[in-house]
Amino acid sequence: MLKPLATATRELVNLDGLWLFGLDGTLGPEPWKSRLETRLEAAVPASYNDLFAEQKIRDHVGLVWYQRTVRVPRGWSDQRIVLRFDAATHAAAVYVDDTLVAEHVGGYTPFEADLTGLIAPGTEFRLTVAVDNRLTNITIPPGKLTVGADGQERQTYFHDFYNYAGLARSVWLYSTPRSHLTDITVTTDVVDGGTGLVSYRLATSEPAPASMRLIDETGNTVATGEGHSGTLRVEDAVLWRPGAAYLYRLEVEIHDGWHVVDAYELPVGIRTVAVQGEQFLINGEPFYFTGFGKHEDTAIRGKGHDNAYLVHDFRLLDWTGANSFRTSHYPYAEEVIEFADRHGIVVIDETAAVGLNLAVEAGLTGQPPRPTFSPETINDQTQAAHAQHLRELIDRDKNHPSVVMWCVANEPSSNEDGAREYFEPLIKLTRELDPTRPVTTTAVIFATSENDRLADLVDVVSLNRYYGWYVATGDLETAEKLLEADLRGWAAKHGKPIMMSEYGADTIAGLHSVLDTPWTEEFQAGFLAMNHRVFDRIPSFVGEHVWNFADFGTGPAIHRVDGNKKGIFTRDRRPKTAAFALRERWTGLHGRKPGSITAQNGQHQTTAPDFTQEPALSTPAGAQRS
Ligand code: GCB
After folding, report:
1. Is the residue at 203 inside a domain?
2. Is 211 within a domain?
3. Are 135 and 158 in contact (CB under 8 A)?
4. Which stretches make up the Glycosyl hydrolases family 2 sugar binding domain (predicted)?
5. Is 502 annotated as catalytic?
6. Rounded mean pLDDT of 100-116?
7. Residue 613 class from Cβ within 10 Å (0-12 exposed, 13-18 middle, 19+ buried)?
8. Which is the catalytic residue, given 392, 502, 544, 584?
9. Strand order of the sheet with strand 273-276?
10. pLDDT at 100
11. Distance 161 CA to ligand 1 centre (A)
12. Are 255 and 293 within one domain?
């Protein structure tokens, strides 16, 4: 699916702003049939939960309604008219006046409705959207619905981050010509020591001759092509590199023999990605991931996309020396991935399959564990929904050079009966949909190198480990031993690249101690330093993603005080002590670990106040190796 874009043949109207808003049950029957009877207005894009000051809205389980009016530009009379939602979390039904025009399940991928013929250009229509936040055993992510003492539905789920919902990304109305491009797929390769190959495949609404040109950053055309598929050769290609993004522009046109019928353009980064033995290679060179698991999460807007936070978060990634992040635990707004493309940040792109693990539910609720994979729990329908999520994610993000790996799920119960039967077809599907990128899943602590049933199916073994926090809490000496034994077990068994996809300790900004005290800023720094000592002793280690970039909002739980505090930055992006220690390590890794290039291509100067003189808090990687 092509992202909406204004081009020579396409026009775009943004529908963000303030929409009428109401909870289902407060608006009368068939609310889409007239103006919503409400005085509430909700910001779009934003999750609705924290916009108001009402518990009833924040905790609402079920449908909410959004509505606004939209005028179709009158110049669009010969055009195809498309309505596009960048996301509706987690499911939506869309009405144009009285007509249902689209239904979509899945909270983090776009969907469209073709309104051609339904609405006359120049006129106005009533756009009403029902958004459903409910999670069940057959949704991705899964959840559980129960009925409370008051007869109202209650939602629980198997992940800690808050179940923000609503229209958290942009909404668009756009035009295309009737005969139009429907999709472009680009893959790249590098041969003969520097010739870039850009292979393309076009899809169109009807047969039409096509031509394209590839333009470099200075505006020179470096290759041209014709037809619906082919390969462009770029001599002495400037490669897209971590920390040194370079984007060509692919301009595509379809013709009717004489005229340009439709035009579209796509940024193209020429690069290769591969896993070879125990190495993760970008452009044939070993790459070491430094960075974070993130969240789309800010105060008030919840998961609402915000360009100011986007810019600031990337500056902070750069500041810490991070070269990458994982889109834990769902696909992020496409603007984020495009920004990563332009700024040379590497992305591990994850589906919304978090919480396929009922052992975690048992741990959180104290109830006896239920089997994760069974007809009553995660079942064939869940697997079908998961497959659809993978299709939509790969369809949206396949052309982004920053995306170097697909993460099929976070912490599934990979040690349980049924895990292999559930995941093997999904991993196979991922490879079929995109044969060019490696695949991973992240392994929960209960999955050991002995009992895990998935690691042989993936390219990179990604581990989430919390030794010193959830295990051996506060005892970093024991934690160090346990961690090393654990990692060595995986290394010996699989002979694959290993990365730490999560490690972290909750930390209250401003809490200090001279002792090793969990929740203090010093403990977080010491915890990370302990992890780093171990990572540096494992030769097949290819990366470290701290959990989490910033503190984030969670559902109610007795082990969370005002959210998850494992952030290196607070929720409003102030650095904790560990941020400086991380910056020292990651900027210092450059040149010491293969490929640990920071976002500015290793240009960092460590000018931050040095709170980390004590060797126990931070040991530069190079020192351990000499
Ligand atoms: C995990 C999960 C992540 C949680 C984290 C934590 O293993 O993958 O979603 O937030 O632990 O802090 O407990």
Report:
1. yes
2. yes
3. no
4. 14-177
5. yes
6. 98
7. exposed
8. 502
9. 273-276, 279-282, 285-286
10. 98
11. 8
12. no
In a domain, 109, yes or no: yes
Same domain, 142 and 208: no
Using CA atoms, how far residue 20 sits from 17, 40, 165, 316, in Å, is 10, 6, 16, 35
Question: From ligand 1's centre to the CA of 329, what distance in Å?
Answer: 10
State whether 353 and 467 are in the same domain. yes
Helix (H, G, I), strand (E, B) or coil at 577: helix
Q: Are 313 and 295 in contact (CB under 8 A)?
A: no
- Please give the number of the atom of ligand 1 that sits closest to the Cα of 410: 8
Q: Among 157, 158, 159, 160, which residue has the most ligand 1 atoms within 8 Å of its CB, making it the best to mutate?
A: 160
- Give the integer Cα–Cα distance in Å for 226 and 229: 8
Closest atom of ligand 1 to CA, residue 470: 13
CATH number for the domain harbouring residue 155: 2.60.120.260
- Given the CA of residue 564, which atom of ligand 1 is nearest to it? 12
Domain assignment present for residue 603? The answer is: no
List the domain range (segments joined by +) for residue 71: 11-177
How crowded is the C-beta side of 494, counted as CA atoms within 13 Å?
Answer: 29
Domain match, 378 and 300 both: yes
Write out residues with Cβ below 6 Å of ligand 1.
159-160, 329, 410-411, 464, 502, 547, 564, 566
Encode pLDDT of 483-509 as tens digits. Answer: 999 999 999 999 999 999 999 999 999
**Which of 334, 411, 416, 584 is the catalytic position?**
411
What's the rounded Cα separation, in Å, for the pair 453 and 431? 18
CA of 624 to the centre of ligand 1 (A): 29
Domain boundary residue, one of 271, 296, 322: 271
How does pLDDT run across 191-201, given as a tens digit for each residue? 998 999 999 99
Edge to edge, the sheet with strand 111-114 lists: 11-14, 171-176, 80-85, 111-114
